[in-house]
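Researcher: Here's the sequence for the chain we discussed earlier.
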Amino acid sequence: MSEQKFRKAHCNTCGGERNHQVLHYKRTRWENDEASITGGTDYETLQCAGCEKVVLRESEWCSEDMNGPVVRFYPPATFRPAPKWLTDFYLEFPPGQDLLHDLLKEIYVAIQNAQPYLAAMGIRALLEQIMINKVKDNGTFTENLRKFEEAGYVSPLQRQQLETILEAGHAAIHRGYKPLEDDLATLVDLTEVLVQSIYLHGSKVRDLKSKIPPRKKPKTK
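Model: Thanks. This is the structure I predict for it:
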């Protein structure tokens, strides 16, 4: 393979395939003279032409491999980037009390590194800690969930959804359940909605309310 100046590659920041400039190129090579086999690894440092983020492309090849080289990216391509409001979520907590933020951040790391078991388990752990954070630990998932609904954090419909999410995490831990990409996206969708509604929407609604001019009182005759 000859060195290229530009290459198409996935960009996690921009989303999807983007043009990348090849900043650096290095090839390592090995040979087996007895078997007449050669192979090696090509390394390319790529910079997105849009957002300018840098990734490493590793292409491992062998003369006997009819399927072509094995290509890996570091960091890997992800179908689900962390949300832009993740920093706002971090700021919701006092210093040293950011467990919920760290759990959510690690869920996206698991997703990016194609670790669906860990992502599902992490979602279950996050939701458990959210309930404990709001209604304290009442001994069991069922009782925590009941108290959570009673306190008004979720509606009866949302509680059913929450039970499904928790069960998916439990199945990943105890029954070898491996969520597919679409299923994992659904789990993350519902989790993000819950996190935003409980921790972020309140302050935004209060800020919006402060900007709305009050109604004019009707003139009395």
